[in-house]
Design brief:
The protein has six helices and two strands. Helix 1 crosses helix 2 and helix 2 packs across helix 4. The longest helix is centred in the first third of the chain and has 33 residues. It is elongated and about 55 Å long. The protein starts with 20 loop residues before the first helix and ends with a strand.
Length: about 150
Amino acid sequence: MSLNPNPLYAAPDDWRAYSGTLSRRVFAFILDYVVILLLCIPAAVILFFLSIVTLGLGFFLYPALFAIVAGLYFGFTVGGPSQASLGMRAMGIAIVRVDGREMDFLTAIVHLALFWILNSVLTPLILLVGLFTDRSRLLHDLLIGTATIRTA
């Protein structure tokens, strides 16, 4: 396992690449949502001025503002070259696809959407899946073929 900041695209076979990733994911989740909440402040100001320009039509986007900001945030960070959001980078983890292809914007959005859907249905049980699967993969990881690896 290397300390390369750009992780491999394929999921490694070494078990050490997956040790401790479940707890790191929890802390990365908290850090990422703090960042998203902070990003919602300038997005709300921009949306306010956009709403004035569009004669009030932009105000209809306020209920979905958090989802839009979170989707763009995860799409560009997890779907980017580092394959990790800011919280994941701080915790030393990244998301890789099991088939060896690079994470793209659409796969990152689907990963986030499945996480939200499954978390709303299986709230505490979503983390229990990681205790019993190989590579500590959660249910949405199994569905789209991703794994979380350590980068540090």
